[in-house]
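Researcher: Good morning. I'm working through a list of sequences from a screen, and I'd like to move beyond sequence-only analysis. For each chain I'm collecting a predicted structure so we can compare shapes side by side. This is the next one on the list. No need for commentary yet; just the structure.
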Amino acid sequence: MLGQAIKKIEAYNRFGSKPGLERISELLRLLGEPQKGLRVIHVAGTNGKGSVCRYVYSALLACGYRAGLFTSPYLESFTERIELSGKPIEGKDLFPIAERVIGQAEKMVAQGKESPTEFEVVTAIALCYFKEQRADFVVLEVGLGGRADATNVIDEPLICAITSISRDHTEYLGDSLESIAREKAGIVKEGRPVVSAVRDAAAKAAIREICALRKAPFYDVSELEVQILSQSLSGSVFTFSEKRDQAVFGKEISISMCGSHQIRNALCALRILELLSCRCGISLPQEACLKGLKEARQPARIEILGEKPWMVVDGAHNPESAGALCDTLLPWVRGKRVLVVAGILMDKDAGAIARELRRIGTDFILTEPDSPRKLPAKALGEVFGKVGVKGWIRQCPSCEEAVETSLALIREEEEKGKPYEAVVYTGSLYLVGHIRRMLGKK
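Model: Good morning. Structure tokens for this chain:
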């Protein structure tokens, strides 16, 4: 049943990606408005939104709540996109809801209306599932942008958050940080608190302006002062304080996702949790929240799959996320041999990503994600050659070939007494999900 449901859902991929709320709104109307009454934390941003969602979700679970999580895209299994109480949706639940949602989508088409897209169908399925399962809270990740994203059918979220702003999906969102920020801030609702970790001044000003117009209280976590007590590839320990006050939580905070960017994401999640407690009157014991933060893990975000050499998998799909990956790894790999296996989509800034990855890589294997939007390995090789990569570059269009080649090289160089200290698999999430599955079977 699960396979049948997924096949029917994915058939809607032929309608592509179309911003706008008309189709999803009509579909939800036919389904009885399942989004009404859900207690939603709505999270947008260029990067970091998935991790912030995971932190908040994990904390809510640790506090004993029946929380739901909706994210995209998935890495290995379609059901990863819809979670409840720490478990992906099961086939026995997905199948009947998918049948009902697709039935209404077909009804729309029969009436001469425009068909929903695949993402809109999946969003509707998630909202129906959370409503049927009586989720206490739903942590909802925006797909693309904010204003015209299918998740923006939520009229009264408990809290909205915007994690970061950088140039991505410029064909939809605009080519300036300010215009992108305005699109992301389209999720801001009248009088609802907004948490922002955005650091660019122009982007932040645009979000503040929209919050003021909608009388939405604005909370800027980028102004918090952080003291990092320890940091490793296993995570970080830190404290933080307001510029005018003592530490909000008053004690050390531990997270298991590594990198300074994950500290920023954790701060965003902490502010959301604080507002849920203070403004919404929700019981969130401090110790349980901190336990949830420490237990939170987001797959394929600087995920360590092995040691000697370090085997790192990370979905660095745009320049900002590639920069965060390299900033995190550089202290551990500087001056060492590092093999990078990468593949990206053609609508990304390949040159900027290549310039970031050359900071850590000595040798490169370039491959292709399993997506019609993939950048061919040959074209990617030309990009990497132009940015001045010092080591060698090999092109393996097949993901399977790229992984097998990397594993063979690890063995060969070990035998020569010139081992790689780290192997980094990175790029499109479509790629790293596939690689993650392959490495798990080795």
